[in-house]
C-alpha cells in the first residue's frame, strides 16, 4: 500500500535526518514508529505527504509515485493521506465544525469553502464522525474552547473526513495525560480497524506503542534499527535504539498495562 | 556528573553577576561616555532666543484662551463642509488602502510568498514608508490640483505602507503547524490562506484597520495645510485670518472624533480576540 524506497532527507544545515530508509506497509496495518528525539520520526512522515521535501528516494502510495508529482497531483494525493498532529494543530479561531470540514478542502472548490457552503454529504459525514468521537454537541464551539483530549479527537475527525487510505500520525499523545493518551491511541487504532486504514504512528511512549499496534519500527539517527512485532522489543533492542538505560522497568510496565487493559 | 571541566569550587562563595551586553569594559565605557558627551554637546547647539519666546507667549496665551470660547457658529458652514470632506476622504482612503494592503501583506510575508514576490512587495512597502505623507501630498496636489482627490490618494498610499508591513509581520509570526495541517488536507493555496492563515491574523487585521482609520482622520487634518482638502484647509484658513476661536472649535471637533474612534477601536478589539 505504502512503499518507501531509499528515502533520504538532508536539511540545509547538513543534518542527515533520514538515511536511505526502506519501508513497506501493507493495506490496513497500523505501525508504530519509535525512536529518540531527533531520530527523524517527524521528518519521515512529513516526507511521505511532502510537507517536507525529501532529498532523494521514492514514495509509492498504491501505484502512484509521490515524490515526482506536480503541485496539483500532490494535492490530489494528499487527500488520501490523513494527518494527525502533535499539539492537535487545529485552527484555533475556527469552530470545531470548520476544523472538521477543512479536511474536505481538497474536494471542494474555493468559493464553496470560502462561503462555508460544503456539500450536504460532507456536513452529514462531519456530524457522524463527531458523534463517533462523542463531540457532536460541540460542533459550533470554537476550537480553542476545547480540552486537549477533545481537540485531538477533532483532529482525528479532520483526518478521517478526507476519506484517506493512510493515516500519518505525529506524536498524537505527546501533550496529553496518561489516561487520555490511551483513549486517543485506542480510538485511532479502532477507527483504523473499522475503516481498514493503514497508519504510521510516531510515538515516543514505548509502552503505549506496544499496547496497541501490530508492528513496531525503531528509528535511530535516520536509520531503521528494528522492525518487528511489539514483543520483539527486548532490552537489547531498546538499547540499540535509545542507548544504554535500564529497560526492565519499561517492559514490566507494559505487562501491567496489558493486564489493566484486559480488566477494562 | 558535569559533562565539561568546570571546577565548581572556584565559584562557591563568589558573587554572581549577569554577563554585560558589551563584554570589553573599555569599549563599554567609551560607548556610554561618548553618548553622554554627544548628548550634552547636542543640547548646547540648540539656540533659544528668550526675548522672542517672551513675545510669543502672549500669542500662545491668546490661542489657548480661545479654547475657552470656541466659535462653532460664525463659520459653521465651512467647518461642516470641511468635516464632511475629511470623513469622506478618510473612509474612502482607508477602505481602498486596506483592500490593496492585504494582498501586498501576503506577498511580503516570507512564509507565504516565494522570494521574487516577497522582494517586490517589500519594495512597495519600503517606498510607501519612505515617502512621508506631506511630501506625497505636495506631489499629488501638484498633479491633481487642490482638493480632496489628492488627499484621498495620499492617505491610500500611506495606508499601504503601514498596514502591509505590520500585517506581513503578523503573518510571519503565525503558528506554522495550524497552517500546515490545512495544507496536509490537500487544500489549494487560496483555501490554505482562507482556512490556515486568515483566522490567525484576523484580530490583528481588524485592530490595525481601525487604528489606521484613526490615523488617516488625523492626517486628513494636516493634509489640508498643503492644499489636499478636508478640514485641514478650513483650519488653515482660520489660522491665516487669526480666527483662533474658530480654529479652537475645529481642533475640539477633531479631538472629539479621534477620541470616539479610539473608544470604538477598544470595543471592537475586545470583541474580536
TrEMBL record, chain B:
<dbReference type="Pfam" id="PF00528">
    <property type="entry name" value="BPD_transp_1"/>
</dbReference>
<dbReference type="InterPro" id="IPR000515">
    <property type="entry name" value="MetI-like"/>
</dbReference>
<feature type="domain" description="ABC transmembrane type-1">
    <location>
        <begin position="83"/>
        <end position="265"/>
    </location>
</feature>
<keyword id="KW-1003">Cell membrane</keyword>
<protein>
    <submittedName>
        <fullName>Phosphonate ABC transporter, permease protein PhnE</fullName>
    </submittedName>
</protein>
<keyword id="KW-0472">Membrane</keyword>
<dbReference type="InterPro" id="IPR005769">
    <property type="entry name" value="PhnE/PtxC"/>
</dbReference>
<dbReference type="InterPro" id="IPR035906">
    <property type="entry name" value="MetI-like_sf"/>
</dbReference>
<feature type="transmembrane region" description="Helical">
    <location>
        <begin position="245"/>
        <end position="264"/>
    </location>
</feature>
<feature type="transmembrane region" description="Helical">
    <location>
        <begin position="26"/>
        <end position="46"/>
    </location>
</feature>
<comment type="similarity">
    <text>Belongs to the binding-protein-dependent transport system permease family.</text>
</comment>
<keyword id="KW-0813">Transport</keyword>
<keyword id="KW-1133">Transmembrane helix</keyword>
<keyword id="KW-0812">Transmembrane</keyword>
<feature type="transmembrane region" description="Helical">
    <location>
        <begin position="87"/>
        <end position="107"/>
    </location>
</feature>
